User: Fold this.
Amino acid sequence: MIKVIIVLVFIPFIACSQTFISTSFIERTNSLEKITPINMLNNLYIGSVINDNLILGITTDDAVSDYIEKGFNPVKDSLIISNFQLFLKYYTDDFFLLMKMPAYTNFSNISINDKIRIGVGYIIYRDEKLDLEVSYNRLLNSNQNGFHKGELNLGISTSMSSLTTIRKHKNLQEYSIIPNFFRSVLDWINTPLAHGYRESL
Assistant:
């Protein structure tokens, strides 16, 4: 909760522009090798919309590392490098590129550069308020054991205008093929029937 409060305090610094908020609620990591739910407050992204494509901000997602000691099995994701990370998102239509890096490091022998993560994502559903998106990210450089520690995430995102700005995020407002398909299906279902049954689409 303390992390969330600190991130919320960050909002006034980006209030002069459009505010972006997102969180993931399901993930699958190479470490656990299974789908697990996420505490959304511990995976909160808050950023500033720089232009129609670029978003910069901070996230409560921990930067973690394996504890590795020679002669012993590594303890997966047991070291918290940083309680916060900085992130960058670049959108092109319904696709986006993602990069995040620790805001600092708690260990002098672990470099921030070693924990930079890069990834890609896709908006699979969009309406006027929320986007449902799937993304995958991994370490830019492999760890000591040669692993890139990939993560597959499913989450939601939205953008809000400030008190003095009208929302104009074109790329984030365009509708993708999937919701248009659902809308056409719903329109078809709600169309009155001429003979009491529906013959075709």
